[in-house]
Amino acid sequence: MRFTAYDDEARLDLVIDVELAPSGLLRTRATVGNRGEDGYAVDSVLLALPVPASETQVIDQSGHHLRERHTSFHEFTIGTHERNSRIARGHASSTIHGTCEPGTGWNGGRVHYVHVAWSGNTRSIAERTVVGQQTLLGGELLLPGEVVLAHGEAYTSPWLVATWGEGLDQAAGRIHDFLRARPGHPASTRPVTFNAWEAVYFDHSLERLLALVDVAAEAGAERFVLDDGWFGSRRDDTSGLGDWVVSPEVWPVGLNPLADAVHERGMEFGLWFEPEMINLDSDAARAHPEWILSPRGHRPQEARGQQVMDLTNPAAFDHVLGQMRRVLADVRVDFIKWDFNRDLYEAVSPLTGRPAYHAQTLATYRLMDTLIAEHPGLEIESCAGGGGRIDLGIMERAVRIWGSDCIDPLERQQIEAGTSLLLPPELVGSHVSSPTSHTTGRTLTLTARASTAMFSHMGVEWDLTSATPDERRDLAAWIALHKRFRPLLHTGRVVHVDHPDEGWSIHGVVAQDRGEAVFSLMRVTTSPVRPTHEVPLPGLDPEAAYRLRELLPDGVSTPVPYEPHSPQSWAWWTHGVTLPGSILNAVGLRFPDIAPEHVILVHLVRV
Q1: Alpha carbon distances (Å) from 496 to 107, 172, 231, 535, 600
Q2: Engineering a disulfide at 430: which of 148, 425, 456, 521 sits with its beta carbon 3.0 to 4.6 angstroms away?
């Protein structure tokens, strides 16, 4: 539906679009147009949607780098509960913002939430008034002077995406269904991705990387990504950003020997860029200091040794686009890891003297759109220091996000659960780390690491040249298991389990026809109860029966120490069991007790 209005006094047009998708997801946006002769400054355009009075709690998310999207609940008091992003990134921001009934969990309790589909500054509000109104509002957060409409100009807000459900899984499922129905949703099988970052960091050499290519291909990787450090003076993270030319020092004959080796092994070749950023120690910054977003009187505080390239400046935009075009013309690049490692603060364009968060976001979109149009089939991953830019605006260009720089599987349980409230698993990159996590220092089994990654867009970030032959063989078996179940994992309905024992992290994927399912049960802490309570497995057909068995990769022996307490509780475990879906949904089964940081995988097939 489209609603139109006109203000005679202000001479403003207002158009509100409201779309209802087949999944039940709702989108709305507004366009403000100026018919007046004077300029009109747009300070804020927020869309508002009502929510039921029974929803007396607010749901939102918080976090930080390496621990993004922790979901929490608060009392919905009279007044406003507001969540803003003012730095164009979202490690600490809330991807979703809504209201729910008390006791809402994954499987029950009415919930409504919204998401602002925009990659810049955003604003969302849950408001409860003394006159009985409850609403969710959302839109772009505009700073003074960012949008001033001349005669005949218009501003269109980002889409405000709204969903609802009985439980968080049902609400998230509406967004997943909407995204999967888009014409631009990736139709090809999501390739297992090997990223070389935690294997080599800045220590690039052709010989070392060719060895990694070989072992990655042998393990079953389908894409090989060369991360930061291949360009300009980029031998560490203090210089080179803005100079997107292959370093003759590190790559004297260019990147083609590596890219060709990757393609010869049947893999796609990916390359890291951070096009929106610039180091002061770079040829670009020395030649054009005016290309840096900066107030007139001083430079913004540096972060990670870098500043922000003013892509609203046509000359700077053309510089970045031209250098990226040259690289993509010289090297067959199938995939770009597009990073964004610095918060935007004091982001003022020297061209206008005004804040440029809005215009910078549009320029980034235009840069991505241009490269995608010029290179059909090119895929882009949205990375922002890990999970700092995850929104449905960037997902109109990107086919994958990097969920977090932390790939410790215990931390990833919470991170990926929170991410699932917006994105289905095939859009979320999750990698098998080295045995000892580079971010937490925790050493975990391959089963914990691989079983976590296999439920999303699976990848590997581990120096496999230092792995033992047994480790590489077992990793290959896990990748083969992921490929076997990838059609289910990347199309099915994501479910989570509400369980009184918080020491469990339990989630799964159920086929759309409910004929098959895979569940993961990870013990994240010890329990005060042993043996554990029954674990329900939601989402199954209550009218059908299911055969349930433990799921392990071929050739990998049972990797978890089962506790010998009350073995009669799970005498079925050795040989499997067949039970009605109604029992599995509502009551479930007692599973073997396992030690913390271990995992049980189960496969269910309708019989």
Answers
A1: 7, 11, 43, 11, 15
A2: 456
